[in-house]
Amino acid sequence: MINYPASKLPDVGASIFTVMSALANEHQAINLSQGFPDFNCPEPLIHLADKYMREGFNQYAPMAGMPQLRHKISLKTEKMYGFSPDPDTEVTVTSGATEALNAAITAVVKPGDEVVVLEPCYDSYAPVIRLCGGAPMYVPLSLPDFSIDWDQVKKRVSSRTRLIIINTPHNPTGAVMSRQDMDTLANLLDGTDILVLSDEVYEHMVFDGQEHYSALQHPQLRERSFVVSSFGKTYHTTGWKVGYAVAPAPLTNELRKMHQFITFCTATPLQLAIADFMEEETHYLGLPDFYQAKRDFFLEQLKQTRFEFIPSAGTYFQLVKYDGITDAYDVDFARHLTTQTGVAAIPVSAFYHDKTDNKYLRFCFAKSEETLRAAGEKLKSV
């Protein structure tokens, strides 16, 4: 008999996204759970990828990313946030934002370090911290608007704090950090060596006239931050898995040491296609209106149901509160909604380390109007 080693993550199974998508497929439910569009990416982007594949750009890319793409990222960052990172020493192309998050955490977190994590949160943060020997230090966001209680954050900061992870616009809640939030964070970290990991993959999805405020816009934060973004979100290409990280040269150097042994590089023709398509600024500049229209359309459907909601301020997710319908545990209610009503959602307890159940579900509205209308019809029956 072989004595297999104990699991490094004994409490981690298949992600809730995998579970709910599989359940949706099994029951032929409308899948508003996992965060991906049900419409295609821009046709010119497909043609560009095909062009570069046919021209023979099918071998390894440079580890840090194709120079053309890193240069375009630098130009776009300057246009959007008034800061021009050095494309050679401060920009790294990764195989999706999740890989960038992994590489950033792995680069700086050592055994015994603490990392402040705001909950609910994307489910990859804590497992990577734990694999590095670090300890996630959880701070719950304040209900019902999921704002940050900075006094609670301050209480969690100690001499062992290595990193604070922020996410704006925020998955799963749709909350958006303000300039004042960034100022407060900068003041909190002043005089320390604590680093910041800013997950900004939904940077172009901010609604109702608000603006996304990036850590890259704040000089005091910029010098201590990894900032992560995603072309998958921006160009409706989640399956391409192309993301990037911007960080000061010393942090980028450490991140690349991790990146080269995680994926080494990202698909060459996809990088070149994205670099060319970035010239079409109207696409990403138009995303706030594009997704706000989808949010508003979905909310019109929800108004005819018994679910309660505060309109999402960003991302392509909408939280709904269902405690006026049932007191069922959110995982059980999400399964019931999928199997009996025919609409799949994500239970928000999955984004808490202790499975806190505040009776919220998360719906993805990155779908066609036909899909959202059909889902709305089914949800009216609940």
TrEMBL record:
Cofactors required: pyridoxal 5'-phosphate
Limits of the Aminotransferase class I/classII large domain: 29-377
Origin: domain of life: Bacteria
Keywords per UniProt: Aminotransferase, Pyridoxal phosphate, Transferase
InterPro entries linked to this entry: Aminotransferase_I/II_large (IPR004839), Kynurenine-oxoglutarate_AT (IPR051326), PyrdxlP-dep_Trfase (IPR015424), PyrdxlP-dep_Trfase_major (IPR015421), PyrdxlP-dep_Trfase_small (IPR015422)
Molecular function GO labels: kynurenine-oxoglutarate transaminase activity; pyridoxal phosphate binding
Family matches, as SUPFAM superfamilies: PLP-dependent transferases
Family annotation (Pfam families): Aminotran_1_2
Coiled coil regions, renumbered to chain: none
Gene Ontology CC entries for this record: cytoplasm
Family the entry assigns: Belongs to the class-I pyridoxal-phosphate-dependent aminotransferase family.
Name used for this protein in its record: Aminotransferase
Species this protein is from: Pontibacter actiniarum
